[in-house]
Amino acid sequence: ASRPAMLQSLGRKLFLPHRKSGSELLSRYYAADQELVRVAQQIKRLDADKQQDRVSELIGELKECQQRVMKLMLELMNELIPDRRHPKDFRMKFPDEVVQEGLEGQLWYASECLAAGSSILYREVEAESIRPLAIQVTREGEKTRRLLRDEASRSYFGAEPRANRRLLDQLALFDRILAEFELSYVSAMVPVKTMTEMDQLQEVAVLFSETAAWALAGGHIRRDDIDECEPTLMIVLPRLAVLHGLLVHPDGPLSTKDRPASKLCPLFRAFHSHLDRVRSFLGKLKQSDRDRLVRRLCLTESGDATDAEADVDADADRVAGLFKVIAGVADQIQSNYAWELRYLLRCVYNLHCSEAVDEAAASAAAATATLAVEEGLDAFDWQVTDSVQSASTSMVTAAATGAEASAVEPPAWVPDSASDVCTNRRCGQAFTITRRRHHCRACGGLFCSACTRARRALPVLGFDSPVRLCDACCVSAAAVNENNGDRA
Predict the structure, then answer these.
(1) Domain, as residue range, for 221
(2) Which long-range contacts (CB under 8 A, 24 or more apart) does 186-191 make?
(3) Where is the FYVE-type domain (predicted)?
(4) What's the number of CA atoms in the CB half-sphere (13 Å) around residue 368?
């Protein structure tokens, strides 16, 4: 190469700024970090008393910038120190609404607020106890950011980040401290289960899994119900689990023999006396009556655990009385322990879902990824509005031409990690602990709950029952249904 060309190349490296479209993690991190610094400096220059609206707007931007920076920091940790990541098994004790994408970014913002002297409303004592840890998170986070910025500059000249031992150690330290703060902060904000409670819940999960296997073998539920996550399983499976636990597992998690109510799993603690009475009556039932009871429990009628004594003691129809009590206990679990029930059902789905369904989902994801690579697409360059338009056009075209439902395949879902905000252009709100992600079944895009309130059937895509749709796809689905009605 000529000398002028070499000088020109060196000049580009020295003087051209980092571009946000860079493919390297470090260059993308540098751009995101610079954006965060810019927003933070703007906030410092404003008068909070005179420009409250502008400050609030910039704080929202600051949170979004922190989310992006933290997301890239976590990706760098996975890339550079995959074997030194701090375990987060404690998350299984958290409620579902807490564990979500972007949690670390929210924790980072919370740590800065606590480190600056803020407190947690109605939890002042807890705030004081975790404030030293919050200060440590803020301090180590700044060190990590500084080292990553320096490493991003060095990487332009071919430096290998894995050779920077100081950076790797700092990433591991920050990961550990952030995990410790996460456990302490979440424990202060929401109820977190103890190890004893988790062990008891695991025993109930085993009971639910064995109940599902027994119900599948007996034909009480279908394999398709599990594969398709049929909503009726939320009613039927807990009822069958109560019956199965009382009949088949005398020493299992529902055992009341020589066990006080305080030793039972919290899900069944309030029904100790009811379970004890039901167990005694079940032993007196004939096999034909047990079969009749199972068939009734597979229906979706409601029960009443409060009428246990009156109904079970009635000799006219003991099966009906047992049904009311068992169904009442199971239905109370659904009402009072929604998170625990979701956890139990998720265990059942993961263990008993057909391998064909898993392989089909994996094949579809692989095909989508391969297509993106072949076409030179950026995996993170999601264009949901184009997907909405494409899916809507496909539905309307299929309905207008009288195509079969199988002619249009449901689109692949946009990954949860692809967006931190609602992809409805008129909304654009950031996802948080309370504003969660939802997928439109028609276009596969990511939206908040406010933008996916519509429910419509999509026979063209194979959904005969109403499913969640975004606003744009709801309009298209209405046109499809109207078109089908006109042809009929």
Answers:
(1) 195-352
(2) 186/94, 186/98, 188/120, 188/123, 188/126, 188/127, 188/129, 188/130, 189/120, 189/123, 190/94, 190/95, 190/98, 191/95
(3) 418-473
(4) 18
Q: How many domains does the chain have?
A: 3
Whether residue 209 is found in the same domain as residue 323 = yes
Identify whether residues 248 and 346 lie together within a single domain: yes
Residues 33 and 53 grouped into a single domain: yes
**Cβ atoms within 10 Å of 237's Cβ, excluding its own:** 27
Give residue for tokens 């073998």. Answer: 217
Q: Is residue 80 part of a domain?
A: yes
Q: Look at 11-15, 66-70, 132-136, 273-277 and tell me which has the smallest mean pLDDT.
A: 11-15
pLDDT(141) > 90: yes
| Domain shared by 390 and 312, yes or no | no
pLDDT averaged over every residue in the chain: 78
Name which of 198, 450, 213, 235 is nearest 323 in CA terms.
235
Bigger pLDDT: 330 vs 411: 330
The SS3 assignment for 372 reads helix
Q: Which residue has the higher pLDDT, 209 or 450?
A: 209
CB distance 445 to 470 below 8 Å? yes
Phi/psi at 305 (nearest 5 deg)?
-70, -15
- β-pairing, 454-458 vs 463-469, is antiparallel
Same domain, 137 and 285: no
Q: Which pair of tokens denotes residue 207? A: 């009971």
Whole-angstrom distance, CA of residue 467 vs CA of residue 461: 11
Query: What tens digit of pLDDT does each residue of 187-199 get?
Result: 998 888 888 888 9
- Residues 37 and 144 reside in one and the same domain: yes
pLDDT, tens only, 157-208:
566 777 788 999 999 999 999 999 999 999 998 888 888 888 999 999 999 9
The least confident of 252-266, 298-312, 402-416 is 298-312
Sign of torsion, CA 193 196 198 201? negative
Q: Would 362 be classed as within a structural domain?
A: no
C-alpha angle 72/54/102, rounded to 5°? 25
